[in-house]
Design brief:
Two copies of one chain form a homodimer. By secondary structure, the first copy, chain A, is an alpha/beta fold. Chain A is built from 14 helices and 19 strands. In chain A, 38% of the residues lie in helices and 14% in strands.
Chain lengths: 487, 487
């Protein structure tokens, strides 16, 4: 590390990175370096430069040299100096983009109304209450909360969830059997995707999945080399009585509170069948409780997990109840799966933000989560009612599938002659909807490629996100897109 | 969904999950259900029960029935009622643990002093300043910040990082070429681990890695079926002039600012060699800038990325500068890798918390991050100085490897006759250290299994985490563990 370095290597002054190479005096070199940094935009307009003393000390040059350089650049117009405000990069026309930087891309064209399912109302995020909890939680947290952390997740949150899930979802667990993760996809990867540092996955496939469900989850499982086997769904939910007929299936993934996306709650007989199958085969049932708190026609049915904590993995998150931007979820595990999941997570797995975990724990404990969910339940229930009423008024031949629950509904298109007709009808409705400026999905996209049950056709309509002033317009547009009654 | 459900299924009152089945009146059933919930701990001591009116409405029973039930349970001691405070579950001896819950595990035995590398001082996390930024950032954020989000990460943070990295690390980029992730391991997975929904990985192996480095990263790559090929390291850093001799290597991972863990900065000639190799082969160089802001003997050398943004992927995070609990990192990408990385990330990949991203953006913009880093730089520099002085005083034959930088130092054990001696010496020193109550690593654990360069032996000592009052004691213990000078 000889002195030949000094002129050619980069030299950092304060937090400013300058290269003082080249001919001439240090003053000239500094002027050149600063001018170049401003010209190419590496120092953005408005950036405050370090005081003479700091920069001089850091560069090993005289303070007057720095002062002279600044003065020169102020005279040239690259910097501006204001009494009491120090020396800053002058505000001027956008600096030349660095050679390698392309022009910013224009924003993608957007539909007028977002009726895609799965998204809660972002405008309703309870910022003030969340910040109040954040302040309390981060102030009170022990120092180790900011250290490397326990792969189980913060104990404060696991305790708060234990109580909350017992009260609200009938989940029977304790803090030592909860593992915090960053959402449902993360949980699936932890269970099936193989551990962080090699070894055996926690669970193996094939995995029985409801024949209508989220394509993203099927892809994720496929990428983890897990085969999914479709299980038919009817008005009582998944046909869990058929589980024992599926060959070699080693786990089952269900949405018992509110079948996604068709909307039936899992009938008690089907719940019993699922538990019996799990007990007799030793294979776990995964309960995706994605919107379990949102039921409008009656009190929510308790979790499947409450029937048999030893055979059910209960998965939940704040993605629907609070925000998908928080990346916060939980896995309530049978005792024997805790250590394997922790091993899969590893010591350095990208688990959820500690600050969000601490904040959510407080948010739950102080009752703010209950209040928020109650408020959202009311809001979404009204949205669903308006949707149902609008469809009943303009297109009474079109049925709204499933129970009054959640953040979406399925509008089933009338039965046609033959499946091809049904698909074409759905495609036509989708085209009409998009023409009306609506973003939404058709039901076919949710169907498992190997499903054998009767195909169903319809539109999957999320109603949580449009702003209040626009929802009526969105509904009108949707109704215009619906096919008329066939003669 | 017939009426036979009502008595046997779970009925949720408010956010309370109760089963009102069985013989007798509704009042008796409610008393039984509440008593059981409290007895088994599903309702924890202190939990506030819903007001009579709410619970009655939700259960479809008379308000007086609820009032009577509460009164009975207060009399029995399960509940307590305080004027103005409502009815709560009584504080009493720890309720029976649910049948399936094992006794809590005792905490693992801990060493007295944590000298493991890689961890910043958790007690120094700037809670107040972070909360100030959180309040500002979350108050000002647009609604879409709480929606599904852009896999690139928040634009506020990408803009703040563009400016900060230019100033502090000489990184040349723009917001459209930064992708936010949840740390270095996440970044490696995004680059090599294959996309979320099948398809081609962004980069393929084999990957050249420095022959001393983090075992966790090698395991991660191995789990992604990426072969790592060791590159020798000497006092000028990685021997990048040997890259072209490595067969078929398709990318290289370096720690140019501060070789991890041996401590040499990458010499300008070696930097040039790396860039030349990248340009002539078209293979990218990955720059792991894990502690680039922490240099104590001179100004930090600018990033490798600044020499050639088209051929270097610059990876950084707040894991060392702020906290590993935040799970916040960034990838500065060559233009042509941006879309492939976004495709690998997918729309629903577990990216970093939006709240943390927004907060960090503000934290950087308002200067708090600079202030914090400066303060930590001073703190860690003093720690390093004390370590060096202590070793110089008690064991002057033991060299401290590498430059004055970062959050760790390597104490190289004196050269022995033959490699076996060196390993035994290191093992003996580790045993002695652990006997002294110290947690730390030996150098051998960091060596690539196929490394061919001369083996080095020593202790990897982190100095950031011990509290101020304990650091002197830790140093004394460390010095006692060091081998004496051989005759």
């Amino acid at each position: 590390m000889g002195e030949s370095w000094v002129n050619s290597a980069a030299v950092l002054g304060s937090d400013l990175h300058l290269e003082l190479g080249g001919p001439g005096s240090r003053r000239a070199a500094l002027i050149r370096a600063l001018r170049e940094a401003v010209r190419t935009g590496r120092l953005a307009p408005g950036t405050k430069l370090p005081p003479y003393r700091s920069l001089a000390a850091d560069l090993g040059i005289a303070r007057n040299t720095v002062a002279d350089a600044y003065a020169e650049l102020v005279a040239e117009g690259w910097l501006s100096a204001r009494q009491g405000s120090g020396t800053r990069v002058a505000q001027r026309a956008e600096p030349l983009r660095p050679a390698h930087s392309p022009a910013p891309r224009p924003p993608a064209a957007r539909p007028v109304h977002n009726l895609l399912q799965g998204q809660p109302d972002a405008a309703s995020f309870p910022r003030t209450a969340w910040l109040t909890s954040a302040r309390r939680a981060l102030t009170a947290a022990p120092n180790d909360a900011f250290g490397p952390g326990d792969p189980r997740g913060r104990p404060e949150l696991r305790r708060a969830l234990t109580d909350y899930l017992a009260r609200a979802r009938g989940v029977r667990t304790d803090p030592e059997r909860i593992v915090i993760c960053s959402g449902f996809a993360h949980a699936l990867r932890l269970l099936f995707g193989g551990p962080a540092s090699g070894g055996h996955p926690v669970l193996g496939g094939p995995l029985a999945v409801e024949e209508y469900g989220l394509e993203f989850h099927r892809s994720l499982l496929e990428a983890a080399a897990v085969r999914t086997v479709p299980l038919p769904v009817d008005e009582r939910g998944a046909c869990t009585d058929q589980l024992s007929a599926l060959p070699n299936v080693r786990a089952a993934l269900l949405t018992p509170a509110h079948q996604f996306p068709l909307g039936a709650p899992l009938h008690p007989d089907r719940r019993a069948a699922a538990i019996n199958w799990a007990r007799s085969t030793g294979s776990p049932v995964l309960e995706d409780d994605y919107d379990g708190e949102f039921r409008y026609d009656r009190q929510p049915v308790g979790s499947l997990q409450g029937l048999d904590p030893d055979h059910v993995v209960h998965l939940g998150s704040v993605s629907k109840s609070l925000s998908p931007a928080l990346r916060l979820g939980w896995m309530v595990l049978p005792e024997h799966l805790v250590e394997p999941v922790l091993a899969a997570k590893g010591e350095r797995e990208a688990w959820a933000s500690a600050t969000d975990q601490l904040t959510l724990a407080d948010f739950i404990e102080c009752g703010a989560y209950d209040r928020h969910v109650r408020s959202m339940r009311l809001r979404y229930r009204r949205r669903r009612d308006r949707l149902v009423d609008a469809v009943a008024a303009s297109a009474p031949h079109i049925a709204v599938s499933g129970i009054a629950a959640g953040l979406h509904a399925v509008l089933e298109l009338p039965a046609q002659d033959g499946e091809q007709d049904g698909e074409r009808g759905e495609e036509a409705a989708l085209r009409a909807a998009r023409w009306q400026g609506l973003a939404l999905d058709g039901l076919t996209a949710y169907r498992h490629p190997e499903a054998t049950g009767p195909a169903r056709h319809g539109l999957v309509v999320g109603y949580a996100t449009p702003p209040e002033h626009a929802f009526g317009t969105a509904l009108e547009a949707l109704c215009r897109a619906l096919p008329g009654r066939r003669g």
